Amino acid sequence: MNARPTAAAAGKIDVGGDLTVNRLGFGAMRITGPGIWGDPPDRDRAKEALRRAVALDVTFIDTADSYGPEVSERLIAETLYPYPEELVIATKGGLMRPGPGQWVPDGRPEHLRRACEASLARLRLDRIDLYQFHRPDPKVPIAESIGALAELKDEGKIRHVGVSNVTEDQFREAKRVTAVVSVQNRYNVADRSSEPMLDLCDQEMLVFLPWAPIEDTGAIPAVLATARRHRVSERQVALAWLLTRSQQVLPIPGSGDPDHVEQNVAAASIDLTPEEIRTITLAVRPPAG
Question: Is 0.85 topped by the overall pTM?
Answer without folding.
Answer: yes
